[in-house]
Amino acid sequence: METLPVQQANFWTMQLVGHQTAGWSAEQAAEQLALSAMDADMMRRDLWAALTGFINERPGMLHELIRPLITTSPLSHSTQVTYDLYKQHRSISQISQYRHLKESTIREHLLEVAIFMPAQFSFETVLPAETMQQFSQQYVGDIDHWQFKVADKDDGQAFFIFDYFK
């Protein structure tokens, strides 16, 4: 606590629960410290992340307790399972059937991999060279101004492919 700025230390301690002491809600602490709801939420997350890092760096019972919950991957467990199957050259349809998930969910998982781990994701398997060339001609300039255009025969994957191209 002594290493934290005063406002953060106060925010944290106001929420602690003890013998005959009910901790304040984050909203109450935020109001007392004149923090916006968003700032309070970010401060709460930062403080929990700092505490987790502190515990993770020190051996002991708390470290052993949280170790299974800490992951080095930015992917959710479900997304990782989907990606592992995809790396085995299974199609989206096959993964969907195997995992009992919608194809759109599998596409979202793969998009998550493409966003968070672009160096490990093979875009060529989703975006063939022909599609890349077509999109490169169709979508030029500032990406913030691109507008998705639905093809005449849309098989439901067009927006998914557009997201990958971006």
Question: Can you walk through the features of this model?
Answer:
The chain is mainly alpha-helical and 166 residues long. The chain contains nine helices and no strands. α2 packs across α3, α5 crosses α7 and α6 packs across α7. The radius of gyration is 23 Å and the shape is elongated. The model has no long low-confidence stretch (mean pLDDT 83).
Strand percentage lies at: under 5%
* Biggest β-sheet strands, sense, barrel: none
Quick one: how many beta strands?
Answer: 0
- How does the overall form come out from the CA principal axes? elongated
Helix content: 55-70%
Can you give the mean pLDDT? 83
**Helix- and strand-based class?**
mainly alpha
